[in-house]
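for ur thesis appendix - Cyanate transporter. copy paste whatever u need, i formatted it the way the template wanted (i think)
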Amino acid sequence: MSAGESRPPILLLGAGLLLVAFNLRPALTTVGPLLSGIRAETGLGAAGAAFLTTLPVLFLGIASALGPTISRRLGPDRGVLLAILVVAAGLSLRALGGLVPLFLGACVSAAGIGLAGGLLPGLVKRDFPGHVGLVTGLYTMTLCLGAAAGSGLTVPLLDILPGGWAAALAAWAVPALIASLAWAPLALARPHRAAAGAAGSMIAGIARHRLAWQVTGFMGLQSSLAYIAFAWLPSVLQDRGLSPVDAGFVASLMSLGQAPSALLVPTLAARAREQRAYVVALVSLTVCAFLGLLIAPTGLVAPLAVGLGFGLGGTFGLGLTIIVLRARDPASAAALSALAQGVGYAIAALGPFGFGLAHETDGWNLSAALFCAFALGALLFGLHAGRARTISAESEPVAR
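the 3d part is after this line
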């Protein structure tokens, strides 16, 4: 930041960041609880449902990769403002009803989420350099609370609002618009001059490092576990005999379970020299809890959902923290974030799509095996990504 550049108060920046974070998951978690009803009303088949859960994750990755370009042209603050407005626009499209607005709205809102997700690590590295773990934990926790609200409140909204599932899904544009209004004065308070040079060169520079690809593999594979749970857990529970309302409530418990680990894990992991022990513990918890939800007595689904959420929230927060910790400077953090989330979400898209197709082939058994395979991959990549090293887009990796 230049000497003459104004800086909003740090507490206002933090509050605005949390409002933005709250809106970075409802677009993804609101469809799952209504998916059975949407399929029944529209005739959407199993392949179409799997495609509906996959397309948004692909757009997350595409938009994440655009983060450095948007940051150079607009600045990260205005880039986040653009992102949250795109999220609101995508959610609003769902109000039109029908499959085309549903798919289009999912892709547009996911693009906004991906763009914001690609920009936030560099922004945290810039504005909160002494509190990376705490701030990453706070915004990840708030993101998880937004996910919980989306999965738990959408079915009740279906009963309250006229307009059926389209209105219940589109209602989540309102908090996104509120967040954009809160973030706008913070973003516009900082003048930005477009930076020279190509953003792609920064990504290419960071991509020279093997560690960058290990971080990318961990980010993508742990994300695939989360998107499988977001998209398919309500259907799993309904097949086990739970009502749509109860299945949505349990999915909400899963999202709520993410909040404490999303706060604690980044805060603690950032203080550690390396993060490999966190990788092992959290991935193991995630697998055990998910398998329990498939085979354990239904009376245990609530605590198992909380355990699954704790594992997923912790691995996601750990992934974001590792991005910041492995980067030596804010520009490298932005480039590593673009690579890890851009390519990573393309990997993650395979999760919900493959899980849905596997279910059509062999019930939930083959799906469970696929979930475990993704988890094993996340574990292996995470053991390398958690090593105490830092990389820069312009130099060789060094030990911390």
